[in-house]
């Protein structure tokens, strides 16, 4: 089964320690994957780092899914499984946000807040079907 593509991104503001943000992001990445870090200047001259990783190989995506499932509490997995339909768009992309501060502490917790690690998972279906993408996402994430 082709798994699609997973994109993981977050930002490090000038007030944050970049190494701590990298550590939080590493909770979601297979050991042999390092994020790309780009430096930008904010509207007020502040430095913003954009950290991102794109997973396209099946083994990397499987490793990510294992990290995600094993890193979440049972209760958080149940919440995720309930929310899959509202987080899936018409193109079969599952949009997730995880609390960046909690990730730094080693916890994977869903959030709707802006200070987050953003995960987009493309769930391919043929022919394209949102309902089938939801079903496949549940199989991958909920067991």
UniProtKB/TrEMBL annotation:
InterPro entries hit by this protein: PAB1135-like, Ribosomal_uL5_dom_sf
Protein name, as recorded: Exosome subunit
PANTHER family documented for this protein: EXOSOME SUBUNIT, EXOSOME SUBUNIT, DUF54 FAMILY-RELATED
